[in-house]
Amino acid sequence: MLNGQVSHDQVTRFLSEKDYSSKDLWKALKKEIREVEDETGVLIFDDTVQEKPHSKENDLICWHFDHTVGRSVKGINLLNCVYHSKGVSLPVAFEVIKKPIRFSDIKSQKEKRKSVITKNEMLRNMLLTCRKNQLKWRYVLADSWFSSSENMQFIHEKLKKKFILALKSNRLVALSLEDKKQGRFVRIDSLLRSEKPIQGWVKGLEFPVLLHRQVFTNKDGSTGILYLISNDLDATAETLETIYKKRWKVELLHKNIKSNTALAKSPTKVVRTQSNHIFMSLYASARLETLSIQRKMSTFALKGQLYIKAIRVAFEELQALKVAAGA
Prior knowledge:
Layout: H1 8-16, H2 22-36, E1 42-51, E2 62-66, E3 71-85, E4 88-96, E5 101-104, E6 111-114, H3 119-132, E7 139-142, H4 149-158, E8 162-167, E9 172-174, H5 177-181, E10 186-187, H6 188-191, E11 198-202, E12 209-217, E13 223-230, H7 237-244, H8 248-259, H9 271-295, H10 299-326
Parallel strand pairs: 1-7, 7-8
Antiparallel strand pairs: 1-3, 2-3, 3-4, 5-6, 8-13, 9-10, 9-11, 11-12, 12-13
Helix pairs in contact: 2-9, 9-10
């Protein structure tokens, strides 16, 4: 028993009884989300890969490409949608990337796996779910991994929402409708030199967009360049940079679920319990976020405080056992 209330068997039964999904997460956090939602809110998308090199491979724990390290790793791949409004960031949807389809790679002759649908399709489905849930938001934010023409077309035309996304430096753009019609496209990194946004046309899109080159300084003093694209044609450079900066909130979620709520440390062996552990990690992270705001301290400081209290309770229990043994 844990503190006389929750046993290991109870936890095991909970993780095994049903498949917990993104819908369950929304139901569990709906009240907190409604309290902070606003028309100026943003939806932030990103995926994260957590390595589990020693776990047995299955449809969930398998090989995924991790663009942060530039190679495939064995582990968990999770796509998250974070809602940020009024200083609060909460997960509103998620998809665990499963790869049930096995095939033989022609070049390597090795067996590989793939998902039934792509992560970009998952993103669009999650956006439809957010609309169905009547969640209020203005912008969709994501890195260049999700800035496909299909995604931008979907957000602009089907959802009638704004987006601010990062673009890879080799994306092709035209400065006028005439250039677009004539097929006169050039790479964005050869076109954008000004620090002010310009209007243009990206190859594959049927509507004009705002393009912006953001120059920033890294922690080590080096200079970085970020190419941003938005369908908000009235936005200024300051608006684009300030709003896109909120994309970092999803990185904080990923840091929390890895370090504070034990995303990859479950001893579970089958896909259902492994998936449910991921669900509980996200849910616990959201609860930790709301508590940290109430207590006005970081989630890491709050975790440390909880650990100290848990250790104190355990020590008191140990002392009580010693006294009972000596009686």
